[in-house]
Amino acid sequence: MIMGYIKLANYKVISFDKIPSTQTYAYEMIADGRGGDHIAILADAQSAGRGRYQRTWVSHHGNLYVSFIYACEERDARLSYAVGVAIAETLIAFGVTPTIKWPNDILIDGKKVSGTLIEYCGRFVVVGIGINIKTNPTVRATYKTTKLDNYVKITRDELLNKLMRNLDKWRGADFCDVRARWTELAAGLNHNVKYRGEVVELIGINENGALILRRGTRYELVYGDEITMETITS
């Protein structure tokens, strides 16, 4: 059920109490011609929230679940980093110290507090963001999560307002600035991590948004894949 429409920080916000997925609703808007630049779909809870690779995103009340629609003519691997920096800077503004797990998961004390799903649809891109404020899911023993409430008292609307402004700031920034800030905030740089089950060294990102990994003396560029951000001792 739609709760209302508001204008906030240059966005048209469509607010729901509960829907299956803000991301899916954004897709439906684009498909039937209602999509447009700077539209945000906000939900108090989701019954079928999803993350990358169709993973379930547990979506209880009290957290931030929002999908942003932006005009976008072509895919851009650099967008993930701008979004990651924008979320991290939002948390920093409220006194939290986050790190970024490649490419744009946000961690506090090594535990995931925020995830992002970026999907392209026609002339638009949909950026779905979930941030744990009041609750955090228990996924499995080796997958640690946390919530902002453990560190700072903040309302969802305060968080959303600041996030919108930072998204506009960092999406419009030169990528050299995004890359520099992402590198400062990144978790695991110059450490061994697992990529496709193999131990590699995480070096950084290049000017096109590719992840740079090193296997011995050989360097490898990676787009749109996953690494396991656990420090490997060897």
Keywords for this entry:
234 residues; alpha+beta; BirA Bifunctional Protein, domain 2; 2 domains; 22% helix; 35% strand
Description:
It is built from 4 helices and 13 strands. It is of the alpha+beta class and 234 residues long. It folds into 2 domains: 2-185, Bira Bifunctional Protein, Domain 2 (BirA Bifunctional Protein, domain 2); 192-228, no CATH class. The strands form 2 sheets. Strands 1-2-3-4-8-7-6-5 form an 8-stranded mixed β-sheet, with helices on both faces. The protein has a 5-stranded antiparallel β-sheet with strand order 12-11-10-9-13, with no helix packed on it. A hairpin with a 2-residue loop joins strand 1 (2-8) and strand 2 (11-19). The radius of gyration is 17 Å and the shape is globular. The model has no long low-confidence stretch (mean pLDDT 89).
**Spatial gap, N to C terminus:** 53 Å
**Number of separate strands:** 13
The largest sheet has its strands arranged as 1-2-3-4-8-7-6-5
Mean pLDDT: 89
List the total number of helices: 4
Percent strand equals 35-45%
Order of helices and strands: EEHEEHEEEEHHEEEEE
How many structural domains does the protein architecture include? Answer: 2
**Assigned CATH superfamily of the largest domain:** Bira Bifunctional Protein, Domain 2
Strand count, sense and closure of the main sheet? 8 strands, mixed
Question: Helix fraction?
Answer: 10-25%
* The first-level CATH class name of the largest domain: Alpha Beta
Poorly predicted ranges: none
Please state the structural category.
Answer: alpha+beta
CATH architecture of the largest domain: 2-Layer Sandwich
Q: For the CA atoms, what is the radius of gyration?
A: 17 Å
Per the CATH scheme, the topology name of the largest domain is BirA Bifunctional Protein, domain 2
